[in-house]
Amino acid sequence: MKKIGRNDACWCGSGKKYKKCHQRFDEHLKQLQQQGYVLPKHKMIKNEEQIQGIREAAVVNNGLLDYIEENIHAGMTTEDIDILTRNFLAEHDATSADLNYQGYPKSICTSVNDEVCHGIPSKDVVLKDGDIINVDATSCYKGYYADASRMFMIGEVSDEAKRLVEVTRECLYKGIEAIKPYESTLNDIGRAVQHHAESNGYSVVREFCGHGVGLSMHEDPYVLHYDPGYKTEVLVPGMVITIEPMINQGKRDIHIGDNEWTAYTDDGKLSAQWEHTLLVTETGVEIISK
Question: Which spans in 72-185 are helix H?
Fold first, then answer.
């Protein structure tokens, strides 16, 4: 860590003196480092002003997903979901972080059945009874970002599809429960997700992961949904991350489709995903966007 004087401005950008802001925090981190923990970089820690900005972005993002949940139905196209997204964000003075991100052409991701993630809304994809769909939204409001996704079951779905959706949500919450400030690491999140998925006969996609978020759409650290077998950062207050496990009904193998965005299961079986934006606090975790 860069040395800083007690009366210097704190590295977090709060405008407070270091001794009144993050000095004791850094001293705690040094103790953790001596115990063998991998420390998060300062850039992974948000100050109070930034956290409040992310919360405000989350109000929009949560509202967007609520709005979609109220209107999604069999017979609509995934392009209709994109239109709902554009209209809602415009009405709330917000923008989609997805649109034009590395060339992505739409304002939201809609992944149906065997689509693992990054499904592109299309007027040719009509939702039908029995489908499951993940809708993944990242909203930008006043320069801050919030990210979440939900699964929707269209009409009467099979028991097998319903179980996958439910267990995937449980995987997300097992990951959240693993967060113990100053004690657990990112490995603990991945281990909890992987254990719950595999104990239920499912597999965890490894090509995509959660991530830091808030000041941009994707930030450090990576949040793996399995235990990689090497040390990862300890979880400390001020970290804002997503957990977003992608759980396959069959094998974990996937491929990218012809549009160069959408990931599919290799075996054609179903995939599900849930995602929350989370703040690590002094006492646990706050769910910001869901």
Answer: 78-91, 159-177
Average pLDDT (76-92) is: 98
DSSP codes joined into one string, 41-64: PGGGB--HHHHHHHHHHHHHHHHH
* Distance spanning both ends of the chain, measured CA to CA: 33
64's CB contacts (< 8 A; 6+ apart) are 85, 88, 89, 92, 137, 139
Residues in contact with 195: Cβ distance below 8 Å, sequence separation at least 6, in sequence order:
174
Mean pLDDT of the chain: 97
> What residues have CB less than 8 Å from 28, skipping those under 6 apart?
182, 236
Instruction: Of 146, 144, 268, give the one whose Cα is nearest residue 215.
Output: 144
By the 10 Å C-beta count (0-12 exposed, 13-18 middle, 19+ buried), 39 is classed as middle
The per-residue pLDDT for 290 is 97
CA distance 139 to 120: 17
56 CB neighbour count, 10 Å cutoff: 15
* Cβ density class 95-115: b for 16+ within 10 Å, e for less: bbbbbeeeebebbbbbbbbbb
For 193-213, what is each residue's pLDDT tens digit? 999 999 999 999 999 999 999
Mean pLDDT of 138-161: 98
> Does the CA dihedral 88-148-284-10 come out positive or negative?
negative
* pLDDT at residue 3, as a whole number: 80
Alpha-carbon gap, residue 240 to 48, rounded angstroms: 12
Residue 208: the pLDDT is 98
Q: In whole angstroms, give the CA distance from residue 127 to residue 178.
A: 35
Closest-CA residue to 276 (of 133, 155, 174): 174
